[in-house]
Amino acid sequence: MTLNIKQINRFFLMACAPFIGLIIWLMVSELSITLPDSSYPKHALTHATVPADTAKLTAGLDQAKKTALVTAKSLKKSIQLYTTTNRNMDAIVSIAVSQTNRPYRIYDRRITRKIGAPTQQIESDNVRAQLFVIHAQHFNGYALKVKLKSPKAMKMVLGQDKNGGAETTLAAVDRYNAIAGVNAGGFADDGNKRYPLGTTVMNGNYLNGFAPSYKDLFFVGLNDKLELIGGKYRSKSHLDSENPRFGASFVPVLLHNGNALPIPDKWRTSPLRAPRTIIANYKDNQLLFLVIDGRNENGSSGATLQESQLLLQRFGAIDGYNLDGGGSSSLVFNGRVVNHPSDGQLRPVPTHFLFFK
């Protein structure tokens, strides 16, 4: 609620009207005061010598005084009314703000209940990160729900900060003093170096140039509005239109607009079950990461991609993407490794998503 400028102008015009009227009256009355000649002795000046106009002036001043007193009282009442109105407006604004945030709180409670009760939570002006434990029929895992409050809350980093470098997610978290970290995209080995697959974007720049999506490979990352973007991009201009800040590539896309997409035959059984790392989002732009445990990568433990889709839908996610899994699956929260890496220890990988308090 805001005060109209015309209303403010009308208020001050009414408040000043008596004084303006007094000035106009003095101007049109053509009053004059005649002083006695200096040669007259002082004792010769009597009441009779005072011009008649002086009496009119005195009467006018008395009337102006009365008007000023009335105006002062009116101004005092107006100020009191203005102060009371301000208090009421502050209360209305406070209620409006609380009501504006109410739908978000209701939605957040609804999606959080679907995952369960968080076992740990870290919150600051930049981020809120909640950790959940998942117990399913054929596997166990963890969910990390993240609300990004500022651009400082999340970034993607390269292993050892160089192209071709690799390090564990825990090492990257410690080096950047992050509160949490998850492994990101897939990679290809080249001797002692590991290079990210497909298109990789760091700080708005293409690491190895743009690589058009082929077969089941996709790109997933965040744009300049902290929104999750992803899918298959056939041209650089297509991806540029999404304003990517950072992102990585892997296979395949799991969920789009809440609907499960067909899993390509190759990924249905190769392997059937495995440790998984998945990134997804909600309607309010919160992020959801799933990190599923598996004792090995031969398909006898872990989750299938179809089960991962069902889990995302059960948790109310909108879009979901399968990140590098198997021995690469890593979840670090509050300084410790949360999941149980299938290699028995964390694997050095080239890209990591990190979160900051």
Automatic annotation (TrEMBL):
GO MF annotation list = hydrolase activity, acting on glycosyl bonds
Q: Which residues form the Phosphodiester glycosidase domain?
A: 176-356
Keywords assigned by UniProt, alphabetized: Glycosidase, Hydrolase, Membrane, Transmembrane, Transmembrane helix
Residues crossing the lipid bilayer are 12-28
Asked if the Swiss-Prot or TrEMBL record annotates the protein with the keyword Cell inner membrane, the reply is: no
Record flagged with keyword S-adenosyl-L-methionine: no
Q: Which InterPro entries match?
A: NAGPA
Record's protein name: Phosphodiester glycosidase family protein
Source organism per entry reads: Paenibacillus lignilyticus
The major lineage groups are: Bacteria, Bacillati, Bacillota, Bacilli, Bacillales
